[in-house]
Amino acid sequence: MAKNFTSEIEHFRRQPFNFKMLIWTNVVYTLVMPVIDIFVAAYVMRNSNDPTKVVIYQLTIYTGIPLTFLLNGFLLSRFNIKLLYSIGMMLSGVSMMIMMSLKTLDVTGIGVAGIIMGMSFGFYWANRDYLALSITNDKNRNYYYGLETFFYTVIAVIIPFCVGWFIELVGNKENANFAYRIVTGVVFLITIAASIVCFRGDFKNPEQKKFIYFKFHPYWRKLLVLASLKGLAQGYLVTAPAMLIMRLLGKEGALGTAQSIGAIIAAVIMYIIGRVSKPEHRIYIFSAGLILFFVAALCNGILFNATGVILFMLFLLLAKPMLDISYFPIQFSVIDILSKIENRNEFAYILNHEAGLYVGRFIGAGTFIVLAYYYSTEVALRYALIFIALAQLLSIFVAQNIIKEGKVLAKEHGIEEAEEKILTEAPLTGTL
């Protein structure tokens, strides 16, 4: 056991410098991600008791993300990518500060905080996706995302539990908002630390070529369909867990505990999958993640009680990282191929991909609002997830077609052979 652990550390040390710096930057920032993803929504729910406001907050975030992706493309010609990446991380703390300073959670205040959080995500993900694409290749992306997901899942054990019980025990009923403000201050300090780590990397800006296009290869349209299906679930999943737990379990402590159950096991599984799997295994990992997501939705819809929420969270803890480990390498392999065929800047595809996600997110969040308005919040929370999970299963066939066509295009244009020459400093896959 100790020998295997030492071997894994040595394997990581042999990775290129920028590979390691990007991992460590994301690890530090990951300390605040559960707070942003779960507890901000819980704060809105606690202070407004209105699930539709939580969804409105999420919609403003999703509106800010693609706009900032576009802005980021222009700013990359004037500013270093490390600066824009750091600004993205720090804006998340700024958004939380604005939210906590609101005396009344009206739609305008929630919208402003949401747009700023969307800008944070836009700068963060636009630059993170480009850097992950540029410092990895198709051979080591499973390992990169397996390692990143391992750290995220381990942190997801500790942070939700600690923050949830801190808010509940320190804040009590009267001082809960004060506890949230303390958490916000800590979040801002962590984003500063992540920015410091980021500046240690030797990250390069993309080549300054045109990055706005409206016509793409037919192959790209298939990925946009896959992105829209992914966004469909994202539009619901960022806020649904918090609303379900606050409604059916009732307290932030329960929220933190539910987020932490089973996460250690999930972390180990994700690392092993990322370490030993190869590109040809991605479709199986992707399919397993989608099936687990469907099972999670069924548990919630059939039971719709405290047990159902806990089962929902357990299956989701496995489903989400499995989808990330497989989806991002599939996306990046498409970009690798088409950027060479069409001779375009990789960031052009990252930007356009965000448009596909936005369409799906808007439909997903909009579905909740429509069901809550015309039927009830319970109907929206209970049944919409099942329909979304069913639609998500179509992604299996779309992804399978993308992978097959990608192999054909790569062979036709000689990209497969060129890719073989781009290796990292360490073995890319293997047994533990």
Automatic annotation (TrEMBL):
Record has Transmembrane as a keyword: yes
Q: Name one Pfam family in it.
A: MFS_1
Species: Pinibacter aurantiacus
User: MF terms per GO, please?
Assistant: transmembrane transporter activity
Keywords annotated in UniProt: Membrane, Transmembrane, Transmembrane helix
- What is the official name of this protein in its record? MFS transporter
| Phosphoprotein listed as a keyword | no
What InterPro entries does the entry give?
A: MFS, Sugar_transport-like
Q: Which residue spans traverse the membrane?
A: 21-44, 56-76, 83-102, 108-126, 147-167, 179-203, 223-246, 258-276, 283-303, 355-375, 381-403
